[in-house]
């Protein structure tokens, strides 16, 4: 048996809870989950037995940045960690590290003083490097029996802290990397080519698997995001959404381990209610997904573009007039199967990347002509670059690469709202004014991501699913973003987080209908209206399904369905409400 009796992780766990003591006696009730400082915490022998059960794949958490703090300081290692801290791949290869700075909580990062203690804080205490359904089942049973918080972690890409938890045992699905192309998948819902992806497959890997077989599959904008976890289970918006739909619309079947420790297949005809919930109702909530099989499409030419101009010498009214003109053009672009994003900062106006399946460069320039004509009329000096590349992967590499890392960093705090198609007309003035106010008077900027999210004609979901209904009426997803600067005091960043929550997002809300909705995967922390915004009319049905498959609410994530069955105590443990 491989022992996991590491003194350093245990010392970290104890230190974390001594520094932040509870104001009550958690041992006086069984309504709370336990922490390492509790007398009922599993013994070293218990953990060793679990480790043996999972073939030596139990990992005691040592925070990634521990080399930056005494007594384990190592200058060379620390410098390397600091250099790469903002890059997602740095965190993905560890069982416990996460990317959201708010939830990292500065308990152990490379930017705080060497003398500051390295604590576990919000990080899980142990993880199982799952290689099979049996490993997952063992973790579920252990957490259930010992009253320990269970966490599901894939890559750690999550703005709402759903892949970590104080005192938790994580099921780390990152190394479930099996994949298979299915030339003819047959079911009552679909007959055609499909691809099975293990839970650990990330966007860049899915791109490669599909590309080698002359196919496309729907992925996200960031290539290091796991396809099978919160991305597809939260809906999943990406560059191909205008022409193929959202990621959840492509799901043919899931292989899962339930809260009862049972492995089963979930599809539109078998466990149909669970299929509905998994396809858009939020990750980490209903079961642990081992793999998903998705619809695949024949690969082909993808047009692309980017356009930008400097604001230097361009009047502020002109800049936001151009923003309004792009709102006007959005419906015709997305109806043509184009997906694109744009933003205004205090320095520049940027459109792109634009994804246009089947388009030549000439067709792209023609589609953008109404906008570029306005720029020419105002004598704005802009740069327009167009491409028409032979495959989705080559397009992605050019406009969203380099692969595998991509261009997105783990240094953001975000909040978002969906913009209904009718609001592009009804709320045009309010949207322009809100964007101008946010950009010119706050620390934030707003990224607008346009896609045709309606499902009609030949573009249909595999089956009815729980994607937030507001997505089907939305033309644009507006995401407000602020930078988290690690070199500044955490108090300054918390003030910036409060600015996002109390000033920036409310401005977007006021410009839009109250029921516009929010993309769960890019939602803000602290939203009191999370049930309505993130799940809408689906919430009650999702809650009923969770009661069937997870009657004890073992699977908990913040802002997830059923999460109000728990509250977080002062020392971080979960307690029953």
TrEMBL record:
Pfam families cross-referenced by the UniProt entry? BBE, FAD_binding_4
Its keywords, alphabetically, are:
FAD, Flavoprotein, Oxidoreductase, Signal
**Superkingdom of origin:** Eukaryota
Residues annotated as coiled-coil are none
Which residues does the UniProt record annotate as the domain FAD-binding PCMH-type?
Answer: 120-299
Residues annotated as signal peptide: 1-16
What are the names of the required cofactors? FAD
Q: Which GO terms describe its molecular function?
A: FAD binding; oxidoreductase activity
What is the protein name given in its UniProt record?
A: FAD-linked oxidoreductase ZEB1
């Amino acid at each position: 048996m491989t022992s996991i009796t590491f003194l350093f992780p245990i010392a970290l766990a104890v230190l974390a809870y001594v520094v932040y003591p509870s104001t009550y006696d958690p041992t006086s009730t069984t309504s709370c989950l336990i922490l390492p400082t509790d007398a009922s915490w599993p013994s070293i022998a218990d953990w060793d037995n679990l480790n043996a059960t999972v073939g030596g794949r139990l990992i005691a958490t040592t925070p990634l940045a521990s080399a930056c703090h005494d007594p384990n300081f190592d200058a060379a290692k620390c410098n390397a960690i600091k250099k790469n801290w903002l890059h997602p791949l740095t965190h993905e290869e560890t069982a416990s590290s996460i990317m959201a700075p708010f939830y990292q909580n500065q308990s152990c990062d490379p930017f705080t003083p060497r003398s500051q203690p390295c604590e576990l804080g919000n990080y899980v205490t142990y993880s199982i490097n799952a290689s099979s359904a049996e490993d997952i089942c063992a973790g579920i049973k252990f957490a259930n029996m010992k009253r320990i918080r269970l966490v599901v972690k894939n890559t750690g890409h999550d703005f709402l802290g759903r892949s970590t938890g104080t005192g938790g045992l994580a099921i780390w699905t990152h190394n479930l990397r099996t994949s298979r192309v299915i030339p003819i998948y047959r079911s009552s819902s679909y007959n055609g080519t499909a691809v099975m992806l293990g839970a650990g497959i990330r966007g860049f890997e899915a791109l490669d698997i599909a590309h080698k077989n002359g196919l496309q599959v729907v992925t996200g904008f960031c290539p290091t995001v796991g396809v099978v976890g919160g991305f597809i289970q939260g809906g999943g918006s990406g560059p191909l959404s205008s022409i193929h739909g959202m990621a959840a619309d492509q799901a043919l079947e899931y292989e899962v381990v339930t809260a009862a420790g049972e492995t089963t297949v979930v599809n539109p005809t078998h466990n149909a209610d669970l299929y509905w919930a998994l396809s858009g109702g939020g990750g980490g909530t209903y079961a642990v997904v081992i793999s998903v099989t998705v619809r695949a499409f024949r690969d082909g030419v993808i047009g692309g573009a980017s356009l930008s101009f400097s604001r230097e010498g361009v009047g502020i009214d002109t800049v936001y007039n151009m923003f309004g003109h792009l709102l006007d053009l959005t419906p015709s672009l997305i109806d043509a199967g184009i997906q694109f994003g744009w933003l205004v900062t205090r320095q520049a106006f940027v459109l792109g990347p634009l994804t246009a399946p089947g388009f030549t460069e000439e067709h792209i320039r023609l589609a953008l002509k109404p906008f570029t004509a306005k720029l020419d009329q105002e004598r704005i000096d802009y740069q327009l670059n167009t491409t028409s590349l032979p495959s989705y992967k080559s397009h992605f590499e050019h406009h969203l690469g380099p692969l595998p890392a991509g261009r997105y960093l783990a240094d953001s705090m975000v909040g978002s709202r969906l913009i209904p198609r009718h609001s592009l007309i009804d709320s045009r003035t309010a949207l322009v004014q809100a964007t101008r106010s946010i950009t010119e008077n706050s620390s934030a900027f707003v990224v607008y991501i346009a896609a045709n999210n309606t499902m009609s004609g030949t573009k249909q979901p595999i089956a009815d699913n729980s994607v937030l209904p507001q997505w089907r009426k939305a033309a644009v997803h507006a995401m407000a973003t602020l930078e988290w600067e690690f070199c500044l005091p955490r108090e300054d960043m918390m003030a910036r987080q409060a600015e996002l929550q109390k000033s920036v997002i409310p401005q977007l809300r006021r410009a839009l209908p109250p029921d516009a909705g929010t993309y769960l995967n890019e939602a803000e922390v602290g939203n009191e209206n999370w049930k309505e915004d993130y799940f809408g009319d689906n919430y009650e049905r999702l809650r009923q399904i969770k009661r069937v498959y997870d009657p004890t609410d073992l699977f908990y994530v913040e802002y997830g369905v059923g999460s109000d069955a728990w509250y977080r105590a002062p020392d971080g443990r979960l307690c029953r409400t």
